[in-house]
Amino acid sequence: MGRALRWGGAATGVLLLFLVLAYGFLRGAAPRLDGQVKLAGLSGPVTVTRDALGVPSVTGADRADVARALGFLHAQDRFFQMDILRRVAAGELSELVGSAALVVDKRDRLFRLRAVAQQVVAEATPEQRAVLEAYAAGVNAGLKSLTTWPFEYALLMKRPRPWKPEDSILVIYAMYFDQQNPTDRRESDLALMHDLMPAGLYRFLAAPGTQWDAPLLGGPMETPPIPGADVLDLRNARSVASSVQAGRLRPAPREAEGEARWPSEPDSSNSTDIGSNNWAVSSAHSADGHALLANDMHLGIRVPNTWYRARLSYKGAEGEVTVTGVTLPGVPAMVVGSNGHVAWGYTNSYGDWVDLVLLHLNPQDADEYLTADGWRHFEHYTERIRVKGGRDQTLDVRDTAWGPVLDQDHNGTLRAVHWMAADPEATNLELGAMDRARNVGEAMLVANRAGMPEQNFMVADADGNIAWTIAGRIPVRSGYDPQVPSYWDKPGTGWTGWLAPERYPRVVNPALGRLWTANARVVDGPMLAAIGDGGYDLGARAHQVRDDLMAKDKFTPADLLAIQLDDRALFLARWRSLLLRLLNPKNVANEPKRAEFRHDVEAWSGRADVDSVGYRLVRDFHTTVEDAALPPLFTACKHAAPDFDYHALSQLEGPLWALVSQQPPNLLNPRYGNWDALLLASVDKVIAGLWRPDTGLATRSWGERNTVRLRHPLSPGLPSFLSHFLDMAPVELPGDSNMPRVQGVDFGASERIVVEPGHEDRGIFEMPTGQSGYPLSPYYRNSEPAWEKGEATPFLPGPTEHTLMFEPSR
Rounded to two decimals, what is the model's pTM? Predict the structure, then answer.
């Protein structure tokens, strides 16, 4: 016993010593909040003040000085986040975290984006390079001034690597990866469907829109007619066998040895991985006569948050410049915000920014492919991927004139991928000029020239004007159908240049006095042709936003925040009605579980609120019906390509509703005798999955399912007591997909702003987690409560609580 006590005492002492050392190490990584810092390269002093939320206001002589100071702040508060972003884009994550990241690195290294980033920096204007270099120097100074490394590097036992100007471009590429699918899974799946399905079935399932569409220009799209038994009859074994046989014309090929292939996308049927809203109302519809802009960008949310709030002030060529909003750690630019003249925000455009290019190989030389100029050899690059704790891996990248070789299609044809981000001309730092835009016209020109992931750009100005356009470069296409993989080896085929800004799609001061986007189709006709269709979101969310904006004539900032928080599930109202018709007295007789199901659905308030059992039941019923009704229609595709996933098609709600409402016998899953049997089986499956012997369905609320857990990237690998220290506390939140308040367990509004340009003091801002990535900082989690509750906090920084002075070092 005495020996055990001595060992126990020694172990306790070791643990206490470890905790003391760990605490001391953490303290050494504390960001500087007050005092004076000598910073080499400054042309004059820079002042940084912080408010109660830790939001810095940075004031300097010029843009380069402000960028240098901002780099210092980003490094001290968010360096690990910045490092992860550049490594993901460059395919260098395994060097930091080990072999678990190899799949991601092989996927991303295919595009060799570090080399592209170096070229972008080399071709930048002198002013842009000066800002990049000043920012990089500030990052390295901020990192060096910490007594110890950020705590993540102690856990990983790796030394932080200095920042380079090209790394800021890589951070932009990380956002490309986040916003776009570089291998165009949708295009690949559409091609498979087109080749293997009867024409009528393909038109029905691949329709580009639905009745939910709410574009700014044009109207909704009707679901094509349900194909008859002459096209496909699932009750007829011969018809099904014929369809499957068509899908077996050639087996799905294996990728070539060493060939990189994008991993299969996860089942997205229950995900909320599409989102972002923005809208604007003109001065005629503002309660105080000034235009208003609202933006909530929906992203996957980790700790810390994607964005870093800031206010930047400096002298420009035309006088004082002050811009407030959010920056992206790693990039010296204001991403979303207001400069007193214009306010702007984004949603992902889901235009067509990727193409799959089919390759003719030379029968005499397999290392040659055909171009419009004749046969050309593949360029081979050996990419070495360093792996922490393991052997280096090599990747043989075969490059073409259009991009790297990706894989083979279902016919065995080799394919290259042509992606916007991998073209050096598509990325630049023009967005920085938004600081100085004076009206919507100037702001749109900046957006159209900006090299960034293509976004729906919404802008309002201090004169009451509002406008929408596309931010980012738009390619000019010629000679092929961009919806399916095509050969580009004939003259004049492919991307033939860039659209001039004056030809960009634009909507300015519409008669309605309102503009809105929510990742769905925005326009039609020639404008839509220029943007293309890269898989627009279902229009239900945009439809609801539009109707909210039309429900009033005059708006205040609080009114627009209320729209951002609108959690009414209007999309599912007709599914609720279907359920209530289905669960009639006959179908619930002697079925007490179904009776309870009906009671909860009948009592549902219509919102995706945390206490609602009814919402969860209707939602799960919808998903279960989809999983029962749709797979038999894709049998041929699944046989030809086992990784085919119809969930990549974002407009299937139209066909699904047509099926359950019109109930065509020829398209009924043959496992069921009739459509009501399929629907009732779906009800019973939902019940079986949620029923608890003691409480039935009573405790199976939406909040139980939608418990938000925002975690640090390293948290899952740590003991629970350390994870709790790093993560935000779990919280049940309202909202879901297909409504303005998009909310999933780790996905949602990465920020909410409402702002009147010229009157920013009336604006609203909300953000999850906090400003700092340093766990002991008072700003690590103090923005979280207002975000969770949807409480308005000021857009502008508040009273000063800390002041840090940067002085030029001599």
Answer: 0.92
